[in-house]
From TrEMBL:
GO molecular function: ATP binding; protein serine/threonine kinase activity
Organism lineage: Eukaryota, Viridiplantae, Streptophyta, Embryophyta, Tracheophyta
Protein name as catalogued: Protein kinase domain-containing protein
One Pfam match: Pkinase
Domain Protein kinase stretches: 1-252
Any one Gene Ontology BP term: signal transduction
Source species: Selaginella moellendorffii (Spikemoss)
Gene3D superfamilies: Phosphorylase Kinase, domain 1, Transferase(Phosphotransferase) domain 1
Amino acid sequence: MKVLGRYNYASGYGESSAVAHGYDDLGERVVIKNMGKGKEVHKQILKEFEIMVNCKHENVLDVIDMGLDKDGNYYMVFEHTNGNVLEYLQMDLSKAGKESELGSRFFTREEKIKEIMRQLLLGLAWLHERGVAHQGMTKDNVKLGDFSCARRLCNNPPETTLKVGTAVDIWSAGILLVGMLLPLEMPELPEKEAKGEVLETIKKFLQALDDLIKDKDALELVRSMLASDPVTARQALAFRTCLGSSREHHHYKGFT
């Protein structure tokens, strides 16, 4: 094991942006990310660290520490998480060593999707209501982490805040929901084409979803999230797809 401050890790840390899995001095699992060198990197990680510290929530990845290694690389330390959304949907929790946390009951794919969306939107609502847009969400960070693209919205005029900030997160969450419901690839949006052509591509994509998504509640949520004037994260939480069943909600630690 190699030592970095009060953290031990086996391998993987070496290059810039590389991620290593290790342990702190209390034996807790952590993730250590090499952020690179230089003044700009320092400014960036200070911004990320400040945002994450001030937006602590069970659905936002917990940042633990930051520092400078002997080679002049800045690093950040995060809580350890496992897996991504699509892998998680294939996992039978009753056979994945989770009996002590969740019981032995099998969770259906539909139940998992509802819980994933509920957790994701709770995290987004928490960020958005604190003036932060994540803007870098993927299937790998539904417990919201990697705030390198995040920015505060307080300096933007109110009429542009939703359009250029939180709406990006809602769009990403909507696409993630489509990916969980259907084995589809998002259409390529032509970068240099007129706005009208981009909107036409999106319109055709949404029309195709009408025939492909059989769950009408889920379809309603998708269309609301991928609209030109999308719902907020808090509004989306009121949709039936996010309300789940009458059973108690579970927090899936193996996924988030």
